[in-house]
Amino acid sequence: MRFEWTLCENEAETHYHSHKKYFQLKCKNNYREQVMRSYLPYISQTAAEILNKRETLNIYTYDDEDSMWESTVFKHPATFDTLAMEPDLKKFIIEDLDSFVRRKDYFQSVGRVWKRGYLLYGPPGTGKSTLVAAIANHLRFNIYDLQLQGVRNDSQLRRILTSTTNRSILLIEDIDCSTKSSRSRDRNQDPKEDHDDDDEGGDQLDNKHSFDPGVTLSGLLNFIDGLWSSCGEERIIIFTSNYKEKLDPALLRPGRMDVHIYMGHCTPAAFKKLALTYLGIKEHALFKCVEDLIQRTVITPAEVAQHLIMKSDEPQAALGSLIEFIIMKDTEMVEKNGVKTISKRL
């Protein structure tokens, strides 16, 4: 039994796609039934297993000049084991991701596209980008990092997004900074008049609610939740934002941003994880002092990590430096506001 595989590439027939690559299989006609019943399912299963075990991940950025995604090897070391996060939240995220990748048949049975949307929001330096890296490493998904500010219009957005691959993460960072007026709806409009073009109802947005310089919010919504969202499967879409309250409510609904994850200031549990990661210690006489200060002072995980990593071979000195920094920061806030700083937690 002889098979002939050929890699083919066609120029796009429409302006939505730049080009298309595919494999062509040739065999004798009397082998057709056996190929369809046994050989192709075997190829498909083997390909999926290879993807699941792939050692090298890539991160892609879009090159507007060449109209194509450019990749580089993704070697970020972040994992859920090293992530400084509340244990319950970390467990929830892992279970949600694992549940998503197992449920292809379920999504098909209920007539929904096999995708999942996450919003990571919170102050700068709280670990949003690190969490994205941990998710990519956990799932073994490549990352497509899309800068909306560089996309000219909805047509280009469709062309860009439909050229991404399955089993990937689409990352749109700082989406609150990508909008001209993300909350600029007419406040006199009856919210019941809002609807979109899917058959479940929702929010229709006109083109004046747009992303710099020319992508409309409705254009983005149509890809992540409309007909264009079916152009691919097993995809994670991650938005990040420093200010959730600035986002248009149409973006926040389930089916677009299914899971909202608040990335807050450092907690005692997160500090202990950082100390274990950077200093290699689980206990220290200064831990109690640091934890007490963290509970009443606004400090980010990035600030804590910065002080620990600089003196990672001297735990005593590293913790002492961190304590001095927290006290200094608390004092500055007292002088500025006249009150003790209290960390906002959800």
UniProtKB/TrEMBL annotation:
Keywords: ATP-binding, Nucleotide-binding. Residues 114-267 form the AAA+ ATPase domain. This is BCS1 AAA-TYPE ATPASE. GO terms for molecular function: ATP binding; ATP hydrolysis activity. Residues 181-210 are annotated as: Disordered. It comes from Salix viminalis. Residues 183-194 have a biased composition (Basic and acidic residues). Belongs to the AAA ATPase family. BCS1 subfamily. InterPro entries: AAA+_ATPase (IPR003593), At3g28540-like_C (IPR058017), ATPase_AAA_core (IPR003959), ATPase_AAA_CS (IPR003960), Mitochondrial_chaperone_BCS1 (IPR050747), P-loop_NTPase (IPR027417).
